[in-house]
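ok trying again, last paste got cut off:
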Amino acid sequence: MTAVPERPAMPTPPTDALPQGDTCAVLRDRLTDRLLAAGHIRTPSVEHAFRTVPRHAFAPEVSAEKAYADDTIPTRHAPDGRVSSSVSAPWLQADMLEAARLRPGHRVLEIGSGGFNAALAAELTGPTGTVTTVDIDAAVTERTTRFLKATGYDRVRVVTADAEHLPPEVVPAGGFDAVIVTVDTWDLPWLGLVADGGRLVAPLRIHQYVWSIGFTKHADALVSDEPLTVCGFVPMQGAGAWNSHRRTIPGRGIHLACEDGTPLPVEQLAPAFDTPASEVRTHVTVGGEEPFDSLTLYLAGALPGFCRLSVDPDHDSGVLSPPPPHWPGAAIVRGSSLARLVTERIGDGECGKGVHEFVVHGYGPAGRQAATGMAERVQHWQRNHRAAICPRITVRPRTPEPTSSGSAHLVRKKHTLIAIEWPVIPGTAALLTNDQGRYLLHLRSAHKPIRHPGQWSLLGGNPEHGETCGQAIARELSEETGLTVPDLTPFVTLDSLDANGALKNRVLVYQGTLNRPAHEIELNEGVQLRWTRFEETAEMTMDPGTAAVLREHQRAPRPRLADVGTPPTIQVREASGRSRSIVGAHLVLLQDGAVLLGRRHPDSAFAPSTWHLPAGHREHGESAAACMAREAAEETGLTIAESDLTLVHTLDLLDPDSPIPRVQLFFAPSHWHGEPRVLEPDRCTEWRWWPLNALPEQLVDYTRTALAAIAQGKPYTQMGWPA
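nice, full thing came through this time. structure:
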């Protein structure tokens, strides 16, 4: 077994006073007691295995005290000095064995040998079960065989092979009841080896993060059904070895790794660090020792161009707050610009271990726009996903046909397609009424970075990690006002949508009764509380969601759970004012009777494998010409001055797949500098000059229409609108 722990070892008390013959038994029991107390051991069967199997016998190179410390024991090194095999940390072995749910009679495959973990599995499966352990290194399997025989577990089958190409005779009819992978693996090519209803537990790499994940096999898919455990293992060897696709920005000592997805070019990023970084604050905080791995995994799926950033410690990189060693930071590349997530200490916190705010630094000409986009996704995670125990991860065989992802983030591996779905965890609010039919409303501070500052709203807040909504609203009321309201009942679910109809956040509103004067309630957050008649709210600055909930209560004042036990849902959409349109900018680059077109990536959500002009959407606070110059630099590496751009056509597009009209602007430059390069390979795979009289057959429809209109000198066309 080959693992490297990601948490401190638990100290082992001195054993000088123990008789020599009892030392290992006492240390073994002490270790097991600690694993029980910490929650890593959760069942009597796993406890029995840890109290029985002699761990020291599988690590004779170290003392008994080290053998029974909660730490990794390296047993073999590669020529470059890196650990290539080890006995894993007991806490992680216990977690993974519990996740495997082994029972007597089970057929088990372990990938990555060492002996101790296989012996534990043999204890759990008993004499009627079978355990097969596989390793690519003959020296490891020879050692494993020796130790298993010496400890009486020689019924474990030891196989020397590349785990990606197991000998057919190793696999039992119907598959294994459990597969436990104990090496850092980038893919899961063993999906077909797991029996239906069986378990697979593996430290899976996704975007260079490693989580131990427990899956259950359902038909042709593996589905995760329990929390993910951050861990570290020695890397897979052989056919399953992974490539981090690490690139170095020239002359900067900055490295970017894009393990999943299309590797990104980085040469164009060097000038981005010549000017000071833009800073965008998120106002989302994290405790000094609180993990935030779920945020980085979410960002990896939510942000195109995601990568991991590391910095040479002895190089003047120009990067503010470089990431810690061995833990690359989260970053995104936008052509010649980059944004990265950092944490900034803003206080000591209640326990004195620090409170940090997530801040995004942007570099390059579009650094602020990239940083703003990343900050918005951090805030979305805070509102909707932070309280989730874990995402749902589904693994299926990879097929050549494009797969619709819906709301899931898809990660394409060599053998499998991995879908990551994030549950939306509602925030909570309390609709409190008194016997006079008034509502208790809360005036929010106008000078804090909160949603709807300076507006009247309901009391409430977001659940904390693993907390139910009922627990969350009770805690929030207690923290904000010291109130305990015993009759809280779910009333409605409030969905707030943006102007395009996308979900911004969800709140479960509870109804309850309270008869206490507002001045007797001690308010710990916000400005003031007030008992308010419904008629008075028309004269108040109201949070739109609160106003919608009050209107619903006037219409139907009693909680009415649906047949499935959930309250009805009401929606509030952001005010859009007048008719809104999405503005797109398109570059019409002509040279010797040919136009520059790019082939969109096969996995693109829009027009996959189809040719299109260099284009993009206008971002907040950006003119259309500035958008065009930025998109040209980000996508192609061309430098174009805004003053050299001329609007040559406007296309008014009503796409049947979108409720928002699109105004597509087409710009032609009089001058440009540079040659077209593929800078966003996850979106565009190549640039090519196409003769205007021989355009490709697979061309975006509205692009073909616009080019034809430009050739005819027409300034305006429209598509998709009723005749």
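cool. Residues 441 and 714 are 57 Å apart (CA to CA). The chain has twelve helices and 39 strands.
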